Amino acid sequence: MLRLNQLGYFDPLKPEDAATMTRDTKNNTVDLLIKVKERGKNSIQLNGGVSGISGSFIGASYSTNNFLGLGETLSLSAQIGTLMDNVTFGFTEPYLFDKPVQAGFTVFYQRYSYDQGRQASILAGTNLLGYYAALVRKPAELRDDEGFTAFVSYQLRRSFARVGLTYSFRDQSVDPLTDAAKSYFKLSRFRRRRRS
């Protein structure tokens, strides 16, 4: 009962929900027939708004905790905006190869267009765009961030504890505003390569 309730697939179960019980004294086991009521497994959300830091955006997400009735978890979310984009896709298999092994992955992409003059104007409460336009060669700095996370975990015998392993990969790129910043990033990368 405890393990079924921990799945989150059904309304909370109580001992009286066991309809029939058949004992097998030869194998020392018990077969239970339990009446269950499945919870809503799908979730759909829509959002949008305007933010001083992120600009205007619109987003949607979908998730299910029992994909195709097999217990898998699937999630997809996307947020698209004037300054920021964020897309994430994830999948989890709770019982891989009919063993208590949980495995899954998450893939993501993010883009952020950072306009230093605009952000400084918002924080200072005065228009500083002209000042920053004189300092930089272009209006915005673009930051791209993409990658994935993969994980696997094993449930220890006769326990609710798990032991697991996670691997993450992330690739970030920055298109700097000024020639000085670009030179600094090149120098940092050169020094890192020399050390390794």
Short description:
The protein is α+β, with helices and mostly antiparallel strands and 196 residues long. The chain has 4 helices and 9 strands, in the order αβββββββααββα.
Question: Can you offer a commentary on this structure?
Answer:
The chain is an alpha+beta fold and 196 residues long. The chain is 20% helix and 51% strand. It is built from 4 helices and 9 strands, in the order H-E-E-E-E-E-E-E-H-H-E-E-H. The strands form 2 sheets. The protein has a 7-stranded antiparallel beta sheet. Strands 1-2 form a two-stranded antiparallel ribbon. Helix 2 packs antiparallel against helix 3. It starts with a helix and ends with a helix.
- Structural class estimated from helices and strands: alpha+beta
**So what's the overall shape?**
elongated
Number of strands: 9
Rounded Rg = 26 Å
Average pLDDT for all residues: 80
Major β-sheet, in short? Answer: 7 strands, antiparallel
Beginning-to-end CA distance, first to last residue = 54 Å
Order of helices and strands: HEEEEEEEHHEEH
Low-confidence blocks of residues: none
Strand line-up of the largest beta sheet:
3-4-5-6-7-8-9
Strand content: over 45%
Helix content: 10-25%
Give the helix tally: 4
